[in-house]
Amino acid sequence: MIDPLDGTASYVRGHPGYCVSVGVEVDGEAVVGVVLDSRGVRTEGVRGAGALRDGRPARPSDRTELATAVLATGFGYDPSARVRQAHVASIVLPRVADIRRMGSAAWDLVAAASGEVDAYYEVGLAPWDLCAGRAIVEAAGGEVRTVPQPDGGELVVASPRQLLEPLLALLAEAGLAVS
Which residues contact 179 (CB under 8 A, 6 or more apart)? Predict the structure, then answer.
């Protein structure tokens, strides 16, 4: 799956939050991913073989407490979806150190894979938004969970193992389906 410009809105405005994302699925599983961001930083991962960020091993954060974690997220283009996403963020933000929004799901996923952020969540990704980043997160030793939502979207959560369940519990408090 190729997304030649993930973060189009960033690109057209001159914001650096865009990248090229290439992922390979085998039997429905993301197994290889490469993301090249606007800065020229290349992150790659192969299931079972690890992940690299500009040639150095990529690993998720070792943070263990949500209260000190920085999360990445994104917002969709549909106004009613953004209202729901803002509600979730209003519950999450007081319980974490901070939230970042780059404008590219692939960028946010590789940031979680490499520890630039502690975790990532978003509802409403397309398969090409997720494939490469998922492969990289999992190759780096992180986890990715996808959960269908009652409104038809899908929640994606990427984090180190130790933050996954606490983050899912917080997202459930914020009104998202987590199982």
Answer: 147, 168
Gap between the Cα atoms of 165 and 160, Å rounded: 10
CA distance 177 to 148: 7
Task: List b or e across 73-84, with b for residues whose CB sees 16 or more CB atoms inside 10 angstroms.
Answer: bbbeeeeeeeeb
pLDDT category at 154 given cuts 50, 70, 90 is: very high
Token output for 120: 């990532």
Q: Distance from CA of residue 21 to its chain's centroid?
A: 13
**Cβ count near 177 (within 10 Å):** 15
Q: Which two tokens stand for residue 170?
A: 């917080």
Instruction: Read off the pLDDT band of 152 (50, 70, 90).
Output: confident
CA 153 to centroid of chain Cα atoms = 15
Is the torsion defined by CA of 168, 170, 176, 177 positive or negative? positive
